[in-house]
Design a protein that fits this description.
This protein is mainly alpha-helical and 429 residues long. The chain has three domains: 85 residues, Fumarase C, Chain B, domain 1, CATH 1.10.275; 239 residues, Fumarase/aspartase (Central domain) (Fumarase C, Chain A, domain 2, Up-down Bundle), CATH 1.20.200; 61 residues, Ribonucleotide Reductase Protein R1, domain 1, CATH 1.10.40. The protein contains 18 helices and six strands. The strands form three sheets. It has a two-stranded antiparallel sheet. It is elongated and about 100 Å long.
């Protein structure tokens, strides 16, 4: 991911330095396992642990000649360790190291994402309680439906992000495995006990069965979880963008004093942060598709997955972390125009009370079809004539003979739309 769309903590995970350190961690843990089984003596193990180190530039130089990154890494480590380096990588294949280390990197990045999600959840919850009973128009099909509250809208987002967190934790658990099982996964040249010890040392579980690699359903699970979170952020961003439209003007993303919106139009305040989130979410979905396609490899393994994974995992985790940070910024700094929300509600001329009137007429004994026809007629006339629905209903004898004035006026009460908000909040928070 380009620096423009990255945060330092996540990018640090995907550096060459950290990758090779994870490779070395796997190799050292495997040497310790061999020592436990009596294959490496204490003196040689101590020498390996003391001298084993690497230099990224030197590894790159070697790889430029031999075109194999793991051998280049091992060659560089051997240059530093000396004769005892013959005991490093005993019975291992390259993917034993690379895939096990890759799991460590994914796990590390996953936990950074979990921390970011927790911060996002807190930001949503704070604003949800602040605007718990702030009325705004609910819209279905883009058309005014019935009033809701901004707090409820935010609470729906909170609930969705919590589910995303659970999915990601499940995916992290799924990738929290390693394999030290050799070239085709049958332990032909190494004991399964080496794998068990090595994985335990690294905080991983040994895969129950593997080929030359860990199976890519695990990685696809992680990537699809990331894409789903991206989709949730895009949903939130799209809603804010829609509510920021001039004709709506209910919520605006932060706009700093020195910020410029357009090179041509000085008046512009564009929702560029939310638009950026929307664009990056599309990228995450593309990466998820690549990961799904990596599941179908030839026989015990081919290398077609490797080139995509070198791109998509760093980019997806860095990108999602950045997107979460952006959404936190938007939520913490958003401008809520409560007066405009009420103005927009008023533009419906009370027609959203139609269901309350319908239910009252049914309760009074009228057939639903007849009640629906009468209410619909009055609601359409009220909107077209820009007259409050209550006024139209008072003039309609089909209504006035069924519902008295006081009872009719009592229907037009906004509390219908807020009375269960506490119940919903109690379920979610």
């Amino acid at each position: 991911m380009i620096k423009r769309y990255a945060r330092e903590k996540m990018t640090a995970i995907w550096t060459a330095e950290n990758k090779f350190q994870k490779w070395l961690d796997v190799e050292i843990a495997a040497c310790e396992a061999h020592h436990q089984l009596g294959n490496i003596n204490k003196q040689d193990l101590d020498t390996i642990k003391e001298k084993a180190r690497f230099d990224v530039q030197r590894i790159d130089e070697i790889e430029a000649e031999i075109h194999h990154d793991v051998i280049a890494f091992l060659t560089n480590v051997a240059e530093n360790v000396g004769p005892e380096s013959r005991l490093i990588h005993l019975g291992l294949t390259s993917s034993d190291v690379v895939d096990t280390a890759f799991s460590l990197l994914i796990k590390e990045s996953g936990h950074v994402l979990i921390d970011a999600i927790d911060e996002l959840l807190q930001a949503i919850e704070t604003q949800a309680y602040k605007y718990k009973n702030t009325l705004m128009m609910g819209r279905t099909h883009g058309v005014h439906a019935e009033p809701t509250t901004l707090g409820l809208k935010l609470t729906v987002w909170y609930d969705e992000i919590e589910r995303s967190k659970e999915r990601l934790l499940s995916a992290i658990n799924g990738i929290n495995v390693g394999k030290i099982s050799g070239a085709v996964g049958n332990y032909a040249h190494i004991s399964p006990k080496i794998e068990e010890f090595t994985c335990q040392k690294l905080g991983l579980r040994p895969a129950k069965a593997s080929t030359q690699i860990l199976q890519r359903d695990r990685h696809a699970h992680f990537m699809t979880s990331i894409a789903i979170i991206g989709g949730s952020l895009e949903k939130m961003a799209t809603e804010i963008r829609s509510l920021q439209k001039t004709e709506c003007n209910e919520i605006l993303e932060p706009f700093s004093k020195k910020q410029k919106g357009s090179s041509a139009m000085p008046h512009k305040k564009n929702p560029i942060i939310c638009e950026r989130i929307t664009g990056l979410a599309r990228t995450l979905r593309g990466y998820a598709l690549s990961s799904l396609e990596n599941q179908a490899l030839w026989h015990e393994r081919d290398i077609s997955h490797s080139s995509t994974e070198r791109i998509i995992f760093p980019d997806a985790t860095v990108g999602l972390d950045y997107m979460i940070g952006l959404m936190i910024k938007v939520l913490n700094g958003m401008v809520v125009n409560e007066a405009q929300m009420q103005d927009n509600i008023d533009k419906s001329y009370q027609v959203f009370f139609s269901q309350q009137v319908l239910l009252k007429m049914i309760d009074k004994g009228m057939l639903r079809e007849d009640a629906y026809r009468i209410v619909q007629r009055n609601a359409h006339q009220a909107f077209d004539e820009k007259v409050p629905l209550l006024n139209k209903l008072k003039e309609d004898t089909d209504i006035s003979t069924l519902i008295d004035k006081d009872e009719l006026e009592g229907i037009f009460n906004y509390s219908h739309y807020t009375r269960q908000i506490d119940t919903i909040f109690d379920r979610v928070y």
